[in-house]
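Contributing new complexes? Match this layout with S-adenosylmethionine.
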Amino acid sequence: MNDMPDQEKMQIAEAHKPILEPLEEKGFILDIGGGGEGVIGQLMGEQVISIDKNKRELEEAPSDNMKIVMDATDLKFLDNTFGTAASFYTLMYMDSKTKQETINEVYRVLKPGGKFLVWDSEIPSEKPNDKVEFYVVPIEAKLPKKEIKSGYGVRFIFQDKKLITEMCKKACFELNIKSEKGSMLYFEFIKK
Ligand SMILES: C[S@@+](CC[C@H](N)C(=O)[O-])C[C@H]1O[C@@H](n2cnc3c(N)ncnc32)[C@H](O)[C@@H]1O
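Output block (do not edit by hand):
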């Protein structure tokens, strides 16, 4: 992403190298925080409805799927609308309250049996020193036909796999698949 701060203000994490296969979904896919690189839009094209609260992030996303400016804590979709929702490195940008409200909203708009796919990073709560302000996760995402390189930088808002899992369970999701590699997290949650 552009507008990156000085190197000395950043703690750079190890690179995350997620491998994304086409998603098994015939209908629409809701992408939460789908601006920026718009990775899910690039992966699944016109099936994707990307929402993001930041209009500029959506304008910058290179795919030409449907994009709507919307806050994830107040989704303007009816209950039980989507078979699949995705969040690609978006939860890390949210404080705990926003994360829980977003997860609750995703649960509401998914159909029973629908999947919530989450790619994200663990974020430490403590900075290594006073100069450092941002935790940056370099991303090298492998899609079937391309590789997308970027870096997602956030302030030190702690999150780990336990926090995300507990929030999803609180929303009544069931955990289906979890994988992790270093600080890289991937989850599949199912709406019961
Ligand atoms: C690192 S970007 C996500 C990357 C993106 N998914 C991609 O594929 O490149 C995080 C995005 O989440 C968005 N976001 C953060 N909080 C949000 C919220 N409450 N509602 C909607 N979007 C939000 C930000 O505007 C930002 O565009």
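Reviewers usually confirm one structural detail per submission. For this one: The two ends are 36 Å apart (CA to CA).
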